[in-house]
Amino acid sequence: METNLWRLLLSVQPSRGLVDEKFSVRVQNAPPAHPLTMHALLHSEDGDTWEAFGHYVTDSGGDVNVSEDPSLGGTYDGVEPMGLLWSLRPAPGSRPGLRFRKRDAQTPMQVRLSVYQGHQSEGFMDRAVLASVMVERWYMAPGVRRVNITEGGVTGTLFLPPGPGPFPGLMDLWGGGGGLVEYRPALLASHGFASLALDYLKQADVKNEYFEDAYRVLQQHPQVCKNRIGLVGLSFGSSVALKMSVYSNVIQPRCIVCVSGSHIQHVGGTLADIFADIAKNQKKTRYNEENQVIWRDLLLPVPTDLSKKVDVSQEQCPLLLVVGEDDQNWPVPESADDMREMMEGAGNSHLLTVLSYPRAGHLIEPPYSPHCRESDRKTKPAIFIALWGGEVAPHSRAQEDAWRKTLDFLRENLYCSAD
Amino acid sequence: MAQTVTPILSVLPTRGLVDEKFKVALENLPPRFPVTLHSLHQSEDKDYWEAFGYYVSDDRGRVTVSQDASLGGTYTGAEPMGLLWSMRPVPGSRTGLRLRKMDVQSPMVVLISAYKGHVFEGFREQPPMASAVTERWYMAPGVQRIDIRERGVKGTIFIPQGPGPFPGVLDMWGGGGGLVEYRSALLASHGFVSMALDYLSFETFKTHNECLSYFEKVFSIIQQHPQVIKDRVGICGLSLGATVTLTMAAYCKSISPRCCVCISGSHVFPSGVSFAEVFQFKEMDMGKARLDEQKRVIWRDMILPIPTDPQRKVAMGRIKCPLLLVNGDDDQNWATVESAEDMAKMMRAAGNDHLLTTLTYHDAGHLIEPPYTPHFRASNFIVQHSKQKVVMLWGGQTKPHADAQEDSWEKILAFLRQHLYPCPSSSLPQAKL
After folding, report:
1. CATH superfamily for domain A145-415
2. Which of B85, B119, B184, B429 has the most CB within a 10 Å radius?
3. In terms of CATH architecture, what is A9-138?
4. Chain A residue at shortest CA distance from B22
5. Contact status of A222 with chain B (Cβ, < 8 Å)
6. Using CA atoms, how far apart are residues B70 and B56, in angstroms rounded to an integer?
7. Which of A363, A389, A178, A387 is nearest to A285 (CA)?
8. Contact A190/B at CB under 8 A
9. How much is the mean pLDDT over chain A?
């Protein structure tokens, strides 16, 4: 059918959503039983292009409803309401090893959703579009406030929810990639938690006292409930969270979430000591057939010596572990098993919850973020492509499920539990 | 810590279009706990508007506004959007206020809060238990706004996102004057190129033909726009704008709108025989204007009884396109229901009444706007020709008027889509109103 004889209507609701909100994408007014391609396009802050697409056929009314109809192929298939976001991957011809991360948490991701005639798999930029809308995805809800923190030698960013407060607090510890990563704490603040993103990898010799100072800064903030603070860590940040919660007298969180973390580390030293220890095992680095780096063996086997792993049998607060079973970067499943064994032996395993996801990798992020199986890691002297692991669809399901359960866990322990 | 109970308040979507429903929910309250949900908005004129509803949490300590009944406040019953449509100026405000967004490129920001107990005043003096902020937008992301200043025409065009071309809608506002953009912006967010027009600044109409040629020019600006499908342009008019719409559809030779929507309008020329005089409000029979007991101006009688002289009204038999009329039967400003009855009679006699659909809303007033905007029974008004400041009575009761706005908007959009968006096959069943 000639496209100039009909005009399709594309609608996305909401057109401005939080990154973890589901949207509904609908096409109307097309001919019945008509093949169409739904396409998503995202330009990262670094100028890279990410895209996703799904092949659909309109129903007898000439409609497509992405929340209910199956994609017959593309970067995702089946009934996947959010597939156009989580299956985004670098466009053909992009530089290798890309990872999507939003540095500016105060502006939205802008995703262009378009409809193409027929079932297309490439060359989207050269084809005519039938309809197109821009959709915004925000990490910050309206009213969330962003505050730079530079007091007491602590560098970080605090995100405060709207309202009078005071609010439960969270210290958000990102991974070994370093820098100040703000998007997850911005999103957590959008869910009612005063969240501090901490910049802790600026110097290799950061002392344990730095984390205690940061914890105090959070506790003493007038809009934070000082005895309702939790820790959320990713990767190396999880290791820090575990160590601090067990051994520090200052850091007494009400609950801890460790995403893709391990308790295996040199307990007595600084972070520099921990890195040095890991470096000693360099020869255990493996490479896959694409020469991507697998670091998971550097911490294995799980030590029995308590100077080499956090003694979680002394943990006093609820602990949620999020595990990707295909994690190629850290031995997260093995660590989780060992932690469970230690806590069962000590009688505090009622505090432990483990969420374990088959075929999910290391970078378990807020939902509907593009999955990253490998990306470049700038470690001296060369740039490696680190293998994180995971397969797109199972990893994306893991992100969605883990995020929902993480929010429930945080609410349960920080909002709902009695003083 | 100041308090031991911290409920969790959520509003989804956090950023919505003004005609999208939202879900307001409270969790983590004690069971059977009385709370007040409150909304607060500061208008562009710096006035404060608020609404509130009284709730009691269920056994799980939750309040779900879309399902639970409000027991009192500015709205009662299960009203998902009551916190918006029942807003009114806070106590102590100036009188006769009307809430309208003039800058459509920024959102309406509404603060939703939960207070302990059932509170009816002094919201600003006590801290709420929790708050959330929500944005309400007239423009979807990517909609373009373009000023039109050409050939003596002053207006604004809104263009939807996407490759185009799109159907077009000429948006004719009412006798209050000025350039009112919000309905056009919202129409563009729904896929129509829409032009808002400031047509009352022009005092230069001397003759009927001058008027017609001005409106022909206006229609051609939108029709000739490169992003508009030429044979799919409709007209939407409110109040005086509806009279203009009918006049254009009936008398302008060089334009043929594909469909027309007339909200709270009449086919009767209020002043006399000349269309040009409509704009001058000359010789208007002001003697028939009444005042109610609060000295608010009621204009509805001015065109009553509906004249039988065909020269005093638009020749409805000349209308060649589908026409949707939207009226409130408590309209105190214009006799729209009586006009609609007369229009039907004229069209029946002319044999074109199959084109006519009339929606009449019980207890709705004159200003039938996009949904969830607050209702006001009367507001300050400056009479165009005399510059006299009065309080104009529009009519309507809040809840029925809000329902009318919600229902009519959905039907107006469906009507515009049905007639302006080319359908793949004429043999397919058309969307029913």
Report:
1. Alpha/Beta hydrolase fold, catalytic domain (3.40.50.1820)
2. B184
3. Sandwich (2.60)
4. A14
5. no
6. 9
7. A387
8. yes
9. 92
Complete DSSP assignment for A320-389: EEEEETT-SSS-HHHHHHHHHHHHHHHT-GGGEEEEEETT--S---STTSPP-SEEEEEETTEEEEEE--
CATH 2.60.40.2240 in chain A is located at 9-138
Q: Which of B11, B15, B432 to mutate to probe the A interface, most A CBs <10 Å? A: B15
* Contact state of B131 with A162 under an 8 Å Cβ cutoff: yes
- Where in the sequence numbering do the catalytic residues of B fall? 239, 331, 366
Q: Tell if the CB–CB gap between A9 and B191 is shorter than 8 Å.
A: yes
Distance from CA of A227 to the nearest CA of B (A): 9
Q: Which band of pLDDT confidence, cut at 50, 70 and 90, is reported for residue A351?
A: very high
Residues of B in contact with A31 (CB under 8 A): 424-425
| A133-150 tens-digit pLDDT | 999 999 999 999 999 999
pTM: 0.93
Token pair belonging to B60: 């799980």
How far apart, in whole angstroms, are the C-alpha atoms of residue B56 and residue B68? 9
Q: Could you list the active site residues of A?
A: 235, 327, 362
**Residue-level length of chain B:** 433
Which residues of B are less than 8 Å from A164 in CB distance?
Answer: 127-131
**B113/A29 Cβ within 8 A:** no
pLDDT along chain B (433 residues), means of 10: 71 96 96 97 96 97 97 97 97 93 96 96 92 98 95 93 95 84 97 92 68 89 95 95 92 91 91 58 65 91 89 93 98 96 97 97 96 93 81 95 98 96 62 41
Indicate the residue type of B351: G
